[in-house]
Amino acid sequence: MDALFEQLARAWSRRSEGAAARIFSVPGDVKHLDTRQLADLEKSLGEWVAKAGRQDVAASRRRIFLLYLLIRHAGARLGEACACHPVQDYRAEARTLALGQGATRREVPVAAALGEALLDAVQAGVLGGTESAPLNVDQGHLRRKLYERADECGLPRELVNPSIIRRSRGIELLRQNVPLPVVQRMLGQSTPNLAGEYLDFSDADMASTLRRVVDRESRRTSARNSFFGQITRITRGDIQSGIRIASVGGHEIMSIITNASLDRLGFREGGFVMAEVKAPWVIVASAEPGKSSADNQLAGVVSRVEPGALTTEVVVVLGDGLEVCAIISEESRRRLALSEGDRARVEFNAFSVILDAE
Prior knowledge:
This protein has helices at 2-13, 35-50, 55-74, 78-83, 86-89, 112-124, 139-153, 162-175, 180-187, 193-196, 203-222, 259-265, 330-336; strands spanning 90-91, 96-99, 106-109, 226-236, 240-247, 252-258, 272-276, 283-286, 296-307, 311-318, 323-329, 343-348, 354-357. It is α+β, with helices and mostly antiparallel strands.
């Protein structure tokens, strides 16, 4: 992978100023998965674990899922993931994971959700392997299961292997403007001279830089009324442009912005953005399909209703677990007879969707 990062270093160092400076272009011959594809694979693995029948099968599947999470989110090599000890290597207070041995030993900041998944596995008693490496599995078996999930997601098998998943994490970070030397140190790679000529980062610099990115990624998947996804189509008009986004949760979101904003923010098809809609702009409707002029219509289940004298806050949970909050009049809430557990639709217009460059 060192040769690959030499190639990426040249691409990283050639970035220009202005809007394009935020865009890291991956060389065409570098095989990788984008954020949306990685999310599809993670979702498929999670559903595969949930479908397990016998307890021993569920435990085996859960270990494979944890190994995927370590490779995909922490950038661990397959061997490093298999050697990881959830109790000894994860520091809950710092939310860091120790990976590697010798010269490649490093502390990697990770999301709280990943740490909780590791500790939950310990509590549930699903670990196997050996006492020193309880996550260890047959690597050939893991690869076969990843290939099966690739088939289910419609992804080429050649792109769904531990090495490319790990590489994809590095590229994902570079696209978020994480400096190349920081990405390399996170992955336990040597730093090419080309990158080292520009910046030198201490361990503290690396940790703080990655922590900011990891925390921002966590907020993307948990923040209400926010949809992180990939731009699938841009339709440019005389004054405004329509932007279609496929969220990592599987929703299609439509936004309309001015052409000036499109050019200033540097949006392009294939790029990633955060789409947000404010609660007062969200309409709640009954679950039955009906005619509506709203560009965005998403089905879910009402999880909470907070009534007030004039207005009521309604939270609807979508199929991927994302929460959409709406503020409607209490009169409307009574007319719809909304209560917790009811199926409902949330609707909002494309002009209400705010886009944030990622």
